[in-house]
Amino acid sequence: MPAIHGLNHPLAQDKITRLRDRDTSVTDFRRLVKELAIMLAIECTRDLPCVDYTVQTPLREAVGKRIAPTPVLVPVLRAGLGMVEGMLQVITEAEIGHIGLYRDHDTLTPVEYYINTPKGLSERRVIVLDPMLATGGSAAAAVDAIKARGARDVCLAAIIAAPEGIAKMQRLHPDVAIYAVAVDERLDEHGYILPGLGDAGDRIFGTL
Ligand code: PRP
Ligand code: URA
Q1: Is the CB of 134 under 6 A from ligand 1?
Q2: Rounded CA gap, 88 and 126, in Å?
Q3: Measuring from atom 7 of ligand 2, which residue has the nearest CA?
Q4: Count of H-run helices and E-run strands, the chain
């Protein structure tokens, strides 16, 4: 079973409440997604592999740690792009892949239209970014594609997850830990998360 890691922090709860508000502007929505991505970045890197590293302080030698190998971020287009800037504020040296998926409006199944990832995925933590885990079809397809390119250490950073999407990921990718700010109630008949925040891509890019 993958672990579901919630972000039960007052700052995160305040930000997600503002994010859900239909009166939140596009500018504020983007900023809140970025701020929540910063908090998710801290959560999903708690167990990141490190190597011992020695530096000289102005006074003497200090033995510490450096993150190695470099993690990889893979935003799911479009909405996952909104999380990249916040993630990079914390995981500054991350390399970035992209996967383009959209949900077919009738079947709700994901359609892949683009993929490009850095080399060496098999040795590195790959963090898939998508603010919404709804049916789980997009996240599962993204992880399928990344694993097909060699990734073995994969996690998913989301802002809102639905129980249906979590169940699908548990079934198809039991090794992938899910980090989410909130787990909502359920999906509606169109596959939207309730209460959710609406269409994340439209709200990030102003295409309402
Ligand atoms: C949204 C969202 C996820 C997907 C989640 O993308 O960003 O990728 O839906 O739904 P699922 O769990 O049921 O697959 P959408 O297909 O609307 O594309 P967009 O980001 O380009 O707007
Ligand atoms: N994608 C979104 O952007 N929002 C939802 O509620 C479900 C899928």
Answers
A1: yes
A2: 14
A3: 192
A4: 6, 13
Q: Name, in order, each residue with C-beta under 8 angstroms of 135's C-beta and a sequence gap of 6 or more.
A: 103, 108, 162, 164, 165, 168, 187, 191
Question: Rounded distance, CA 24 to CA 98, Å?
Answer: 28
Query: Residue 70 belongs to what domain range?
Result: 4-205
Closest C-alpha to ligand 2, atom 2: 199
CATH code, domain with 141: 3.40.50.2020
Residue recorded with tokens 């899910």: 178
Q: Is 164 a pocket residue for ligand 2 (Cβ < 6 Å)?
A: no
Number of domains within the chain = 1
From first to last of its 208 residues, the chain has per-residue pLDDT tens of 457 888 889 999 999 999 999 999 999 999 999 999 999 999 999 999 999 999 999 999 999 999 999 999 999 999 999 999 999 999 999 999 999 998 888 898 999 999 999 999 999 999 999 999 999 999 999 999 999 999 999 999 999 999 999 999 999 999 999 999 999 999 999 999 999 999 999 999 999 8
CA of 201 relative to ligand 2 center, distance in Å: 8
